[in-house]
Amino acid sequence: MQNAATALNPQDPAELSGEVAQLIVTALNLEMTAEEIALDAPLYGEGLGLDSIDILEVALVVSKRYGFSLRADNDDNVSIFTSLRSLCDHIQANRTS
Predict the structure, then answer these.
(1) Which residues contact 89 (CB under 8 A, 6 or more apart)?
(2) Quick check: 70 pLDDT over 70?
(3) Cys staple from 27: which of 11, 36, 61, 76, with CB 3.0 to 4.6 Å?
(4) How far is CA 29 from CA 12, 34, 37, 40, 56, in A?
């Protein structure tokens, strides 16, 4: 049985970034479309304007969707959540298949 996360083409970063952007929009009820989230725009503070609570919510939905844990005490969180691209890179490297 194959779930939606593993059905993604692992060689297609555009597909993954589109899905992750949609997860962010849906989880946070943003008044924008997934396509409006630029790959390299900052997620936190300036850019998309997420705060620490928003980041925790994104971490929760990403963890559930891709089968690995994003922990609040991870020293790499600043770099993981720098942008949509950095978050997708982290997901690509860590998701379970």
Answers:
(1) none
(2) yes
(3) 61
(4) 26, 11, 14, 21, 14
**Domain membership of residue 33 as a residue range:** 9-94
Per the CB < 8 A criterion, the answer to whether 61 and 23 are in contact is yes
- CATH code of 83's domain: 1.10.1200.10
Confidence band for 95, pLDDT divided at 50, 70 and 90: confident
Asked whether residue 2 is domain-assigned, the answer is no
State mean pLDDT over 24-49.
93
Please report whether residue 3 resides in a domain: no
* Backbone dihedral angles phi then psi of residue 25, each to the nearest 5 degrees: -60, -45
Q: How many domains does the chain have?
A: 1
State the Cα–Cα distance between residues 62 and 37, nearest whole angstrom: 16
Query: How far, in Å, CA of 8 to CA of 14, rounded?
Result: 10
Quote the pTM value.
Answer: 0.83
